[in-house]
Specification:
Strand content: 15-25%
Helix content: 25-40%
CATH class: Alpha Beta
Oligomer: single chain
Order of helices and strands: HEHEEHEEHEEHH
Strand order of the largest sheet: 1-3-2
Distance between the termini: 122 Å
Structural class: alpha+beta
Shape: elongated
Radius of gyration: 34 Å
Number of domains: 1
Number of helices: 6
CATH architecture: Roll
């Protein structure tokens, strides 16, 4: 597929690359220009299994794929033609070690006009496509999946922050990241409630079996006298007439 991408590019013009996930905040290649871009017919989705970079075989993580349908806002990078071949080869080692993506040349709309850029798309027929995941499954993955480059949650958060930095608003991604906040808040509420219950139980236990506090009876010669009878330490003695 690399040779086909090189042939389609041709090598005469500058190379354009479309980034929609980690390429935006960690391109790892030099570029001469970067522009905001919009692609029609494809959308960003956190629906690709990652068993090395953001997860493991035992606990697979997630990375982004570009799925057909909808639209996607991202960034395009222009690489001078003299460096295009080297950049493509390095990018292939990063993105295509196992050939999980389908590289495509897509028309990208930019403020300075349209460009054709190489993008890494994901087929729904791919074994790495997750299909639909429940919110609880996302929470589990965000909590437990960690790979060579860190956790799936960090990956999703970093992408969301970088998109916002470029004034790109992804409501679907923001909702997924917020799921972890909901769980954390629920756990904190539960911990506070359990702490309060333990304090209440401890207070109740401390009160049990304690003698009542002394009560002052007006007119009594002893201010420490109590309205309750005092326990005698020996037999009582009666005065004889």
């Amino acid at each position: 597929m690399l040779e086909q991408a090189i042939a389609d590019w041709g090598g005469r013009d500058d190379l354009w690359l479309f980034g929609y996930g980690s390429l935006i905040w960690r391109p790892e290649f030099d570029f001469a220009e970067r522009r905001p871009a919009w692609v029609h017919g494809w959308h960003r989705a956190l629906k690709m299994w990652s068993r090395i970079n953001r997860g493991s075989v035992q606990t697979p993580g997630l990375v982004f794929g570009l799925l057909s349908g909808g639209s996607c806002r991202g960034m395009v990078f222009r690489v001078p033609s003299a460096h295009g071949l080297e950049t493509l080869r390095r990018l292939w080692l990063r993105e295509m070690p196992t050939g999980v993506y389908d590289p495509r040349w897509l028309k990208c709309t930019t403020p300075e006009g349209p460009v054709h850029a190489l993008a890494f798309t994901l087929s729904r027929r791919s074994p790495n496509f997750t299909g639909e995941l429940s919110d609880e499954r996302y929470r589990h993955i965000f909590t437990h999946a960690v790979g060579r480059y860190g956790s799936s949650l960090d990956y999703a958060r970093q992408t969301l922050l970088e998109l916002r930095r470029h004034s790109i608003h992804d409501a679907a991604l923001a909702r997924l990241v917020a799921l972890t906040h909901e769980r954390q808040e629920a756990q904190e509420r539960q911990e506070r409630q359990e702490h309060q219950e333990r304090q209440a139980e401890a207070g109740t236990a401390a009160d049990c079996g304690l003698p009542p506090a002394p009560v002052y009876v007006p007119g009594s010669p002893d201010k420490s006298s109590s309205s309750f009878p005092q326990q005698s330490s020996g037999p009582s003695k009666e005065k004889k007439p």
